[in-house]
Design goal:
418 residues, five-stranded mixed sheet, 2 domains
């Protein structure tokens, strides 16, 4: 991508209402655009980050057999009435009417929809187990959207749903997804802590939240200093100071919830008569699990952790591009520098490297470097009169202050240094 053609421009000042780091840097870096309170659009840079996050999640879930589906965000109210959640959930559930007066729901989650879908397919024990996954927009009428992408009214979720024959099989599936989630967060260099949590309106027998310790987080967790047992403060009995597992002292930390897993049991199977015949031709209800990661929030959390006073420092898996190529034309050898930059750009593309090429002629070196730091692409390559005279490129990693030279010929092996 040529930066001269990139849709969006960086800003030198943060929005007046921006407090959270992700809000400041994602707006200034031209990743997001606020449409209204709690609702954002993604510009090309932001969209690429979102798609990279989806890619990593998709890769890890496909390894454990997840099949991808896509369900509507507009639901008939009757499927929510079957489970009782149409009336149980408060004002956060967005209820609307059609022109014919039919009650509808803008979905904040898809348990009812997936149960309806699965009930039309699963009939015998041979149809189980199954694990279905989707990436879909969710709607939540949040009273006070805040923190940039941390708390939204419209957001993107990865939500998966498992269907098993019995509780033992659910336990095995649950562990597979649980472990896959840990791998996903590790690929983004996030030190997430799984904690025991309340199932809330989702229901079920057991749930875990995947918490990222962060001073700007809204949640609070209790963490054992010795055995690393952790629990959400909301379900910890008041006044408890010691770990229930080993008796050691526990500490309270702020955190951002990035994911949540639930053992749902038959909460949604019974209302939809979602059953199967076992080997003895006996009818049994399907045992369900539910698993979700907030995509926008994960993007925001990465920025909350990985930034400095100049901008974002993207982990490689999330970065919109892997390389930021900058040309500094100078005064004497403009044509030669431009020609070399174009050749390097083409070579990188031919090698499958995602590169943002700063070919802008109306920006100074200082402006280009400031934008590079702000956008936060992992590897910066600079071609100038000075480096060209040495048949070299300047290379710098965004997470380091060290600058060095590499020979232009080594660009053919770019994968070895990006």
């Amino acid at each position: 991508m040529r930066q001269s053609q990139l849709f969006g421009k960086t800003l030198r000042e943060a929005p007046k209402d921006a407090v959270a780091a992700n809000h400041i840097w994602l707006v200034r870096g031209s990743f997001i655009d606020q449409l209204m309170s709690g609702i954002y659009s993604f510009r090309p840079l932001g969209f690429r980050v979102i798609e990279n996050i989806k890619r990593v999640i998709r890769e890890e879930l496909e390894k454990i057999g997840a099949q991808e589906v896509s369900m509507s965000i507009l639901h008939p109210a009757d499927i929510w009435e079957k489970t009782g959640r149409f009336h149980e959930i408060g004002k956060e559930l967005w209820k609307i009417k059609s022109r014919h007066g039919e009650d509808m729901v803008l979905s904040m989650t898809h348990e009812e929809a997936i149960a309806e879908m699965a009930s039309n397919f699963i009939h015998t024990y041979n149809d189980l187990p199954r694990l279905l996954n989707q990436f879909q927009i969710k709607i939540r009428d949040e009273e006070r959207p805040r923190g940039g992408l941390l708390r939204l009214r419209e957001f993107i979720m990865q939500d998966a749903y498992s269907f098993d024959r019995n509780e033992k099989e659910l336990g095995a599936t649950y562990k597979k997804v649980f472990d896959a989630y840990l791998k996903i967060f590790k690929r983004f260099d996030l030190k997430v802590i799984p904690v025991e949590a309340s199932s809330g309106v989702m229901g079920g027998s057991e749930s875990h939240e995947f918490m990222l310790p962060c001073d700007t987080g809204e949640d609070k967790i209790a963490l054992c200093k010795k055995c690393n047992w952790a629990i959400n403060i909301e379900i910890l009995k008041a006044g408890v100071k010691t770990c229930s597992k080993c008796g050691a002292e526990i500490e309270e930390r702020r955190a951002i919830e990035l994911g949540h897993t639930f053992k749902l049991g038959v909460k949604y199977s019974k209302p939809f008569d979602m059953s199967f015949e076992d080997k003895d031709n006996k009818k049994k209800f399907i045992i369900m699990g539910s698993y979700g990661i907030g995509i926008d929030r994960l993007m925001a959390a990465i920025v909350e952790i990985y930034h400095d006073d100049r901008g974002i420092i993207w982990p490689k898996e999330a970065a919109p591009f892997k390389v930021h190529l900058i040309e500094l034309l100078g005064k004497e050898k403009k044509v030669a520098v431009k020609k070399a930059a174009e050749k390097i750009y083409k070579t990188l593309l031919d090698k499958g490297v995602e590169v943002l090429y700063d070919d802008r002629d109306d920006k100074s070196a200082g402006e280009k470097f400031a934008d590079a730091d702000l956008i936060g692409i992992p590897t910066r390559l600079v071609i100038s009169e000075k480096t060209l005279s040495k048949n070299s490129l300047e290379i710098k990693q965004r997470n380091s202050n060290e600058v060095s030279l590499i020979e232009i010929s080594k660009i053919k092996n770019a994968q070895s240094f990006i």
